[in-house]
Amino acid sequence: MESVSVIGAGLAGCEAAYTLAKNGIGVRLYEMKPFRRSPAHKADTFAELVCSNSLRSNKLDNAVGLLKEELRRLGSLVMECADKTAVPAGGALAVDRVGFSKLVTERIEAEPLIEVIHSEIDAIPEGPVIIATGPLTDGALMKAIEDLLGDSLHFFDAAAPIVSLESLDMTKIVRASRYGRGSDYLNCPMTRLEYYTFLRELIAAETAELHEFESKMVFEGCMPVEIMAKRGDLTLAHGPLKPVGLNEVKASDGKRPFAVVQLRQDNAEGTLFNIVGFQTNLKFTEQKRVFGLIPGLEHAEFVRYGVMHRNSFLQSPKHLDSSYALRNDPDVCFAGQITGVEGYIESASSGMLAAINLARRLKGLETIDFTRETAIGSLAHYVSEYNGGSFQPMNVTFGIMEPLEAPPRDKYERALAYSGRALERIDSILNVLNETK
Ligand SMILES: Cc1cc2nc3c(=O)[nH]c(=O)nc-3n(C[C@H](O)[C@H](O)[C@H](O)COP(=O)(O)OP(=O)(O)OC[C@H]3O[C@@H](n4cnc5c(N)ncnc54)[C@H](O)[C@@H]3O)c2cc1C
Q1: Which of 120, 154, 182, 310 lies 20 to 30 Å from 217, alpha-carbon distance?
Q2: φ and ψ of 371, to 5 deg
Q3: pLDDT digits (tens, 9 = 90+) for 73-86
Q4: Mutate to test the pocket of ligand 1, among 344, 352, 379, 392 (most ligand atoms within 8 A of CB)
Q5: Can you tell me which atom of ligand 1 is nearest the CA of 52?
Q6: Distance of alpha carbon 382 from alpha carbon 11, whole angstroms
């Protein structure tokens, strides 16, 4: 049986390589680290989480919670490793980023059918291939993809800073999760005066230099905090800093806070925390000065500053089918953020779907349509069929799934109905997969 080249050992590439191997297909997994790293990658291990350590909701009333459960049922390596390295995060699934990445690496290296090759790929290899080089794909490979498709790829994205717990002033910070769901977050409450002082400095702070298209192409889902602040005095107070569901948190004047900055645990030991929603492109010295105005962060040690990066994705509706394969050459597949799915788990899901159907094609079996009834399938259909205006990366939401025939009026019940239908469909797909393996 022909083996498959997988380029990139990120979230999508690891899930794809593992899925192919579990389907009996030999894999050459190419990863350019440690010889070369993108500006956002720091570790030598695979499936590195370059920004937040949160994989978002873990509940079935949320589409990304559903996506996780679908992946678990299908035998996902990323989900198995995430569950094993989870850290407390309320209703979300957050992981110890180092432990997670290390575990994925060990599991991939232990797979007898996967040969790991540490090398930068600069041309599209012959034979079946899954290209999963992520949002920071660049250089010769990016040029080769652009030449193949006749399109250019790019826009911008941003990451939040991480601070050490021991450097925080805990006399001003309250541990609590919203709506009484535990005490996983560190809350920095602000009075009205503290908020406006911070806002003024944030808006006036100096940003790092960026290249041509930055100002035009900021993705709403990862908008830098300073840009959000400029949209209106209350945009932050009503957005990531909203003081709701935190009754036990009081500001320095003893009253309900005007705004609350939340910090989320970033490693298993609980020694590092990221500032939720604070993706930023401020200069590092400005991050220290301006974020130091947040109560409790006056002397914060920044173990990683926020950064802003180019993000590259294909005009997928033009080129890909719902198995993430090129319409005019199904031996060439793409997976991960480069296809226009947005997010860690979405990227892993595309790697799995691309691999399942490539493996089936190579074995002479019919490919499987996951349909828009499942979260996995909805993303693939969205990416390959979107026909609105400008195509932009997409997180999974119930909104891209096949509408329910009789949707319950209650939002929570409706979400569970989407999830129930999806999981039934996944279970029937699993039966087919097991019968024809
Ligand atoms: C700054 C930034 C912040 C982000 N923040 C978040 C966030 O908070 N939450 C979230 O869900 N998503 C975030 N994302 C999106 C995130 O990148 C994706 O969710 C996820 O990492 C995509 O997985 P992937 O497998 O497609 O790519 P990656 O995880 O980037 O993996 C690509 C891999 O391919 C390798 N590679 C690249 N080129 C080559 C080559 N030519 N040859 C060999 N190997 C190569 C890279 O070294 C890397 O290991 C962020 C992205 C950026 C850039």
Answers
A1: 120
A2: 60, 165
A3: 999 999 999 999 99
A4: 344
A5: 8
A6: 20
